[in-house]
Amino acid sequence: MIPGFASRRRFSDLSEQEVLALAISSEEDDARIYRTYAERLRADFPSSAAVFEAMAKEEDTHRHWLIERHKARFGDVIPLIRREHVAGFYARRPVWLVENLGLDRMRSEAEAMEREAEAFYRRAAAATKDAETRKLLGDLAAAEAKHEKKAGDLAEAHLDEEAKGEEDRAAHRQFVLTWVQPGLAGLMDGSVSTLAPIFATAFATQDTWTTFLVGLAAAVGAGISMGFTEVASDDGVLSGRGSPMKRGISAGVMTTLGGLGHALPYLIPDFWTATVIAIAIVFVELWAIVWIQNRYMETPFLRATFQVVLGGALVFAAGVLIGGG
């Protein structure tokens, strides 16, 4: 059983009332995010802030329409259901990370939000049997499609490099969602999660071949687990992240490579030579992960250092203490 996944419901299992409730909470969340963006941009890019503020007001209007439809169909009590309760929804970026986003990245986030919302409403409209509800959901899908275009054009007045074609930008965005993000997550997981078993075995046995076999098994096992988790967690229909098989392959392969990095030195017969090289590789791996998190995931450098380097050092120390004890 995959931790945290079994409690998430599939979209196809939701009732019509739950779909409306999910739409209401999603519109509320998106409006809050757009207002946060507007506040962040107001001083330097007032026109762009005004666009985000207008988008937030439209989301408020959509939420009002959905609430009125829910009252007409099911009454005043709206079930509590949010995106994180449903498998396949792409997680929204926590609003406290907005301080680390530039205008171009805010635009990209907004495009992804609106694209997912459009896909959600089209799928919801196709599944509902009530004519009025179906019309409302279809109208909302069309409105979200207009929002996506508005978000896509948002930064052009301020960023010359945004003069790329929409087709190229969409292809790049899809490549990042399908291959890069799962691969980076796998690389980080494989590098850190295999430290303890490899170095515990190394110091317990001082046998380089046994240590290599344990490291190989840990890396391959982690890769298989990470790959299957990625495949099972999101079918890509609502999130737009692309084929689950491609994402699973990316996550699985990179997790395996992350674990093999400090296992391969133990192909060297001399124990201490292999261990010194493995420790040096671990040092490089941890700082590379810090750089990746800071560069591609907008994690503040000091926070990434604390999470990755300190966390990795503790895992490494645990392995050494267990093996040396």
Write up this protein:
There is one protein chain. With 325 residues, this protein is mainly α. Helix 5 (166-193) crosses helix 8 (244-260), helix 6 packs parallel to helix 10 (301-324) and helix 9 (271-296) packs antiparallel against helix 10. The chain folds into two domains: 11-162, Up-down Bundle (Ferritin), CATH 1.20.1260; 166-324, no CATH class. The two termini are 33 Å apart. The protein is elongated. The protein has helices at residues 16-41, 46-74, 103-127, 131-153, 166-193, 195-205, 208-233, 244-260, 271-296, 301-324. 72% of the residues lie in helices and 0% in strands. It contains ten helices and no strands.
Structural class based on helices, strands and sheet pairing: mainly alpha
Give the total of beta strands: 0
How would you sum up the major sheet? none
Q: What portion of residues is helical?
A: over 70%
Q: Report the uncertain regions.
A: 1-6, 162-167
What is the gist of this entry?
The chain is mainly α and 325 residues long. It folds into two domains: 11-162, Up-down Bundle (Ferritin), CATH 1.20.1260; 166-324, no CATH class.
Blueprint of the fold:
Layout: H1 16-41, H2 46-74, H3 103-127, H4 131-153, H5 166-193, H6 195-205, H7 208-233, H8 244-260, H9 271-296, H10 301-324
Helix pairs in contact: 1-2, 1-3, 2-4, 3-4, 5-7, 5-8, 5-9, 6-7, 6-10, 7-8, 9-10
State the main characteristics.
72% helix; 325 residues; 2 domains; Ferritin; mainly alpha; single chain
